Amino acid sequence: MTRVLVVDDSATMRGLVRMMLAKDPEITVVGEAGDAQEARAKIKALNPDVVTLDIEMPGMNGLDFLDKIMALRPMPVVIVSTLTEKGASATVRALAAGAFDCFPKPASIAAVRDDATLARIVRAAGRSSVRRGPVAAPAIAALARGGTPGGLIAIGASTGGVETLLRVIGGFPADCPPTVIVQHMPALFTASFADRLNRFCPPQVEEARSGTILKPGHVYLAPGGEQHMEVVGATMPRIRLYEGPTVSGHRPSVDVLFRSVARLGRPAVGVLLTGMGADGAAGLLEMRQAGARTIGQDEATSVVYGMPAVAHSLGAVERQLPVQRIAASVMEMAA
């Protein structure tokens, strides 16, 4: 049984979160709190497995409270955030600080009636094995790279990917090969995440746009929402965004991106990071079969050892590595 403390200054929202979590018989809400002070006391008294946390609260805000949780009593925290530009930016900061995952606040009772997503996230959080404090800003990489002309890097990530990608891309040099990323997150969040990566990492990072020609020293993050991202054009690789049904349960899908890179027939490195499910595993196998080099994050440093575990079981992973060794290994493979 996963024991949950729900923290939100709105009694109505706490009730909606309870309703969503009640869909899973393996989850029980052991308490509620309306602010950080009350939450701190109830964490001590109830010792929950997971905390759902609002960011905008009176007194100490959710971000400051999250920092204290991760520093003093690390535990899985799921951010339940408003889908606004301000809320998205704050949520990305929370994920970078070690929050397990995020979920957009529901607008009404009707919106939660058939939605079991939050319960699935909370259950996975309760089973996660990684407990970490805030991650410092990545160190600027001092990697010399000759580079393979025409080569590129493709990366897929899901739960735990924000913190992990900050560490990986933070280890890339400013002149890294063109890099394309699919990170599972809500549509409004990807622009804020691209901006955060751009501020803290040596390469130029931007949210991908259809038709953009891939350039060295640039990292392109797939927009969340209704479109898949693939790389097309053997002579001059460029980004293509298109609408379509979900693939491997996601849109954008890591499998779609990896398969498009495999079809290019160019030197490439595929990297599959932490995340629930199996998206990207089959695509990484296709990349390896097409001659690409491949890396999977190891279990010890994955927030959720799902996607890279499936890829490893399929024989798609050439090297299985802890997160702190991935950036240097990608540059070595790409050289």
CATH fold description of the largest domain: Rossmann fold
The H-and-E topology, N to C, reads as EHEHEHEHEHHEHEHEEEEHEHEHEH
| CATH architecture level-2 label of the largest domain | 3-Layer(aba) Sandwich
- Residue-averaged pLDDT, rounded? 91
Strand order of the main beta sheet, please?
Answer: 8-9-7-6-12-13-14
Structural class: alpha/beta
Gross morphology: elongated
GO molecular function, one term: methyltransferase activity
InterPro entries: CheB-like (IPR008248), CheB_C (IPR035909), CheY-like_superfamily (IPR011006), Sig_transdc_resp-reg_Me-estase (IPR000673), Sig_transdc_resp-reg_receiver (IPR001789)
Protein name: Protein-glutamate methylesterase/protein-glutamine glutaminase
Active site: 158, 184, 279
Main attributes?
elongated, 2 domains, 12 helices, five-stranded parallel beta sheet, alpha/beta, 14 strands
